[in-house]
Structures are given as C-alpha cells and as structure tokens.
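Worked example

This section walks through a single chain of length 564. The input is the sequence exactly as stored; nothing has been trimmed or padded.
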Amino acid sequence: MRKYIIGLDIGGTKCAVILADVTHSVTLVDRIAFPTYASLGKDQTISRLFETIHEMLKRHQLQTDAVLGIGVSCGGPLDSQNGVILSPPHLPGWENVPFVTMLEEAFLIPAFLQNDANACALAEWKLGAGQGVNDMVFLTMGTGFGGGIIAEGQLIHGVSDMGGEVGHVRLEADGPIGFGKAGSMEGFCSGDGIAKQAVAYTKKLILAGKTPAWVRDGVADEVISVQELAAYANNGDTDAIAVFETAGEKLGAAVSIIMDVLNPARFVIGSIFVRCEHLLRPAMERIIEKEALVYSRKVCQVLPAALGEQLGDYAAVITALVGLEQSEKHGTSVSQEKWYKKAEPGSSQADAIKNTDAQKHLDSLIKRYPCLEPVKSKVFDAFVQLVQTYETGGKLLVCGNGGSAADADHIVGELMKGFFKKRPLPAATAELFGPMAQYLQGALPAIALTQHVALSTAFSNDVHPEMVFAQQVYGYGKKGDVLLGISTSGNSKNVCHALHVAKALGMRTVAFTGASGGEMANLVDVLINVSGSNTAEIQELHLPVYHCLCAMLEEAFFPDGFEL
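Given that input, the structure is written out below as tokens.
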C-alpha cells in the first residue's frame, strides 16, 4: 500500500497544497496553488485550503488512511510545538490560530506546523545541499532574510520558537530597514533590502551626473527590482554589478558572524543566492576570508540550495515526515497522542478513534501487562487500521501456524459475535429477520484462513504448500481490507507470502510477532512485536493483545450494546 504526505505551503501572496508519495523516497506527485487573498481574512484562506485538500484526495482517488500526515510550512511567529499560528505580518488576522488542531479534527490525520525558514532548513538538510552533515545553517535570502539552524543533528527552535531569526541582527549602525531595524541583515541581504540599496545607488549616480542604464531604459529609479538588476549585471553592466558586490559583502559579513558563533559544516542559501551566486560569491568570500575565524571558515562550505523552485513544496512535506519521525523516536503514536486522549464519550462510529471506552481497554492492558508498554502505541495504530477498514465496509483476514492458527480462529470468534457485550441488531435490521433476530448479533467481518481444510490441503498438494494463505488472500481480499499475520518468529514463509499478496492488492497489513519482528517487520504497516524468550511466552502475550483489540473495536462499533 503506497503512503502519502500532504503539504501545505502558506504564504502571504499564494498558498499551495502538495501531494507527495513517500512509500520508498520523497516524490512530489501533484501541486495545487491559489492566491492567498490575505485581505479577505483567514477564514476564506483556511476554507480554501481544506477544500483543496479534499480536491487533491479526490483527484488521486485516495482515502485519508493512505496519508501518513499533513505538514504545514508558514511564516512566523508561530508555536510549532502546539501547532498554533500566532501573528505572521504577511497574514493579517491570523492571530492564535490552532491550525494543527483544526486540520486533525477535519481529516483525522496527524498534522505538524513549522516556521517556513526552519522547514526549508529541514528540507535542504534531509534532501538537498545539506545532506551528510549534522551542523548546517539555512538562509532564506528571498523577499526577507531568515534562517534555520541544524545543530548536532537537531533543528534549533529556541524557547519561543524564534531560533534562527537572523534577519533582525544588526550589521551596521545605519542602513536599509529590514525586520523593523535599520542596518540589519535583512535590510542589507534580503530581496527588498538589495532593491532599496539599488534605489539609493541609482539616486547617488543621478546626483553625480551619471544615469544608469535601467533608468535610460525607462525603469523608474524608485522601483528597480533584484530580478531586473540581475539581468543588467548578467549583461555586464558595471553599475548593476556594483550593487551585487555590495550585497555580497554584506552577505559575507552576515555569514561570518553566524559562522563564528555556530561553527557549522555548511551554509545553504536559497532564492536570490541560487539565481545570482556568480554575482554575490566573489565579494562574499572575500569578506568571509577577512572576518571569520580561520578554524571555522576552513571547515565550512557555502552552497546554493539544491531543491530549487520546489524547495517550498519539499519543506511542507518534510515538516510532516520529521514530525512523524520524532514521534517514533519518543515512542509515542502521533494519532494516539493527538486524537485519542482528546476523546469525548459517546462518539459515533465515524469518530471511533476518539472513543474513550476503547481507551479504557488499552489502559487496562498495559496495567495488567506492563511489559507491553513498548507496543502500546502500535496496538492503537492497529486499532485505527481496523476502524478505517470496518467503516468502509471492509473485513479482516487472519492467518498463522500451529498455536498462531488457533489464535487466528480465536480472534474471528471474538469479532463475529458479542465479546464483552451483547450486540442486538438495530431495529430496522431486526425487522428483516423476524423472530430469528433475537438470535443474531452485530458482527465485524473476519475470516480465519487457517480453517478451510479441503481448500488448504488441495492447494498444498496440487500447487504449493507455502502459498496456501496467499491464494486465499488473493481470493478473499480487496483494497482496504486488513490482513493480520501471526508468527512468533516473524519469518513464517506462508504468512510472509500472504502479506506480499495483500500489499500488492492495496490491503492494510498488521503482524503479531516476537521482539525482532523477523522478515515481517519490513512487510507490514503495523508491527506488534512483543517480548518473549521462546514461542510459548510470545504466544502468551499475543492473546491479551488481541483480546484488547477486539474489545476496543466492540466499544467503537457497538456503543449501544450492553454487558453480557
């Protein structure tokens, strides 16, 4: 089953919704962009973003369970830890917007928020010019001048998420205003800052009796842009080259200060530096040679960003991937952490993953079996997979050998009839069966592939014994169903072959194994690998896990049932 990330790149001028396939590597699949129209207010933009996410899913015929997460790249200030956009100057009215919570409640997908400069730093570090180093500084050098800092393999946020805001640092006592401060790094090195310097230089030339070429060509002396200036410089215009030389010197001064403070292995600079490196680098390097500590500059490279015009798209996607990765490192399930504990009683079937009665069974499992704490989040993730399957009319297939075959049959028994609860049929359904309705109960469709003796023996004899479960998966399975494979070693060939077929069909896959996970660790969406030194101990822990799962599903789908 292929896995996807949705990225949102939110800017003051335009927004984009990105779809990326992250099954094996990060591949950008599609992009839908639209004007922000910030003056119309945040509600209009947020509504358009949500509509576009739905449009993207529909365009590619994707269900939300195929999407691992949503990453949001947005200008600061913001609170990335709590997912709140605070008050970006380019997004008037976006004050204390709990954007991550809004996304998760709307789509039931874990979401992550990151300052755009930090997001770009992560993208270049993971996928671009920063690969292979643990200490890197990314500089935006676009309309503004911001930074993202990777130090010893970690993104630096700072106490209030202002880490990396280098644009505010003053280079000179006076100069062009940027980031609200005259003479700042942003004032000298940003696109707006270079344009302001070009305007000032133009006026200086005119006062000296020299009219620059762009003014002779009809460009108003107060509106020359960096793009226009670069075109003149590339054609050999000495006045335009002089402006870039000054900008390169200020960039070199900025880099030298940061280099001496952080001692990074690499600077990666985006936007203007990517397009105008040849105009900026000579002066930049001259100043770095003069200003930076020798032991710092000799080990540091300054490179243009490698992801080009797609950097913003990758930045949004990588925000989600890094957020998911950090959640895994800390041993927490993102879905459990962000949805499950916010649950409200009495949730509907569609909101089953918020069901607090289901949580009760998971908490009880860990209380009774503390050794299962390491797989608690994985049990929850398996629960989510099964909820999504049953909500869309799917079914569960289960297979295993020996004692695991008995477990497969046991699981089916708990799902196909009342477990902790009696499950009376809804009144409208009961009418269809008349008096027989009192002897029927609500069921969650499940099939044990271990119980078809005639089919199994015939196929083993006539075709291949190791493919007996795979054949049944091919015959019964469909996209969106779940295959649960049980193997204490994780290496049972017939179960592994079945999982391969399930993945090819687009089914969800879950495995119960011992601690190593064996071959099945690389075949499934959710691996519940319990500890145990031998087969018996592993099987003894599988039983309470699947009892817990069956109880959680019963709470989710039969909330109106009553205790047996």
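What to look for: The chain has 20 helices and 21 strands.
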